[in-house]
Amino acid sequence: MKNLKDLFLLASVFVTGSAVLVIEIIAIRMLSPHYGNTMYATSSVIGVILAALSVGYYAGGIIADKHPRRGVFYAIIFVSGITVMVMQAASKVILPFFGTLFSITQGPLISSLFLFFVPAFLLATLSPIAIKLYSATDENLGQRAGKIFFWSTLGSINGSLLTGFFLIPFFGIDTIVMATGAVLSLWACLGFAWHSTGHKKIILLLAGAGMICLSLYYFSAAGVPKPAGIVYQKDGLYEKIIIQDGMWGGRSTRFLFQDRSYSAAMYLDSLGHSPSGRSQTGEASDLVFDYTKYYSLYQLINPGATTAFAIGGGGYSIPKALLQDSPAMRVDVAEIEPSLHEIAKTYFNLPATDRLQHYAQDGRRFLKTTNKKYGIIIGDAYYSLFSIPIHLATQEFFALAKSKLEDNGVFIGNFVGYLDAKNPSFIASEIKTFKSVFENSYFFAVQAPDAPSSQNIIFLGINGNKTIDFQSPAVAKNTNPILKNLGLHQIDMAQIDFSKHREITDNYAPVEYLVSKIINRWQ
After folding, report:
1. Any stretches that span the bilayer, and where are they (predicted)?
2. Within this chain, do residues 207 and 325 fall inside the same structural domain, yes or no?
């Protein structure tokens, strides 16, 4: 019987070890809709969890010496399960409030302390207690302690792989967290049952745990009303995906949000105004955000292009516009969020056509492995707020993209930042990096070069010697207002002192630090 109890003890540290990693990974996903999926969120969660574990191990040692009883051990598991469920319910109130109160650099750390410290602390106290319970004597103490750490660490490995490869792809964050808390509490009930003789007490305890799980789950899932206009909401593989209908510029508009960021938008009345999908000026009629309209820059340099590659699909606004430009156009899209392709077809009028190929993989990886060359490459991948994936902002990436362009092919990239003299500057460093690869390049401020606010900056790199004559009829008399007024938006490189700014490379890429300066000013 004792051997069975010891096996159950080892199984318990396996389960609780799994729970620690589930909480750690899910914590990052819980924070990202409010602070973005940044290094600050990741570092804060890891730091707080490690701090909780270190304090928990110390406290667990004290508890083990004073109260070396299995009832105490399972009571802590039970309470930790309750705190996990409370954590989920509390996050519905704390995160929206803290998300507006604190910046993306401070908020993740403060929120992590409030939400994740206590559950991780309680779970950490269990290992020292388990060692004490498993080692009735000092004989083979090292071997027995090693077994406890082995099963606890194996559980953490299980929690990490289970969360990434199974739980997140198939279940919502709310369900995962509530289920983790419920499993811990019910596992503790099993432990109590094993060591108790009062059947009535066991039944009441199990019933109480079930009621707590159900009530807290109901509060978590249904206690916060959904905003008006939501037509779709689901946890994606990387970010929370929300589709919401609203108004933009007095027109009915559908928006795609990934975490807290606008990812795409489409005028819902555009098809009624123009069955062809084009406006009278030749623009794609359902493009909402001005920066997306700059995709048409290719028409000045490589108007005969028939192949395009888009890094980042979102609502597939630009790929859809490219398909509308010419029946000969073929577009490849690399979008790491696998569900967005079907979402774009269902909610954003993306046509089902063999002229568009969807690849659910990283854009840089795709370029590295493909033998294709393109007339147009569009870079518009963001993972939160103004944060571009680091590996898509370096000198090596731009060199790779250039190597995949046809002669006179163009790279058109969307970046966000300020055009002022403040140092350090993400945009200044990024322009310097881009120019080191694309000697023939242009840069355009979507609002205006002298705008004091953060704005979209369009990078145009040309794999060839063709230039833009802003006074030529092709530009000055173009029916497309974006192209016609292009000269007014060109950024004068002489106004930027590039000597103060470093190029961004795979080796030196403080992108998130530089972007955090933008967000702190923007907030």
Report:
1. 7-28, 40-59, 71-90, 110-136, 148-170, 176-195, 202-220
2. no
Residue 375 or residue 361, greater confidence = 375
Instruction: Give the model's confidence band at 425: pLDDT under 50 very low, under 70 low, under 90 confident, else very high.
Output: confident
- Cis ω for the linkage preceding 338 (within 30 of 0): no
Residue 468 lies in a domain: yes
Question: Is 117's pLDDT higher than 90?
Answer: yes
450 is catalytic: no
Residue 512 belongs to domain spanning: 274-522
Query: Which residues fall within 8 angstroms of residue 222, CB to CB, at 6 or more apart?
Result: none
CA distance linking residue 262 with residue 185, whole number of Å: 39
Q: Are 407 and 333 in a shared domain?
A: yes
- If one counts the domains in the chain, the total is 2
Got the DSSP string for 294-333?
GGGGHHHH-TT--EEEEE--TT-HHHHHHHHH-TT-EEEE
Say if residue 431 is in the same domain as residue 322.
Answer: yes
pLDDT (tens digit per residue) in 428-474: 999 999 999 999 999 999 999 988 888 899 999 999 999 999 999 98
Cα 433–chain centre separation: 25
Q: From the candidates 138, 362, 380, 407, give the one annotated as an active-site residue.
A: 380
E-assigned strand segments in 419-502: 441-445, 455-463
Q: Same domain for 210 and 303?
A: no
Q: CATH number of the domain that 338 lies in?
A: 3.40.50.150
| CA 10 – CA 294 distance, rounded (Å) | 60
Within a 13 Å sphere around the CA of 150, how many CA atoms are in the beta-carbon half? Answer: 7
382/462 same-domain check: yes
- pTM of the predicted model as reported, rounded to 2 decimal places: 0.77
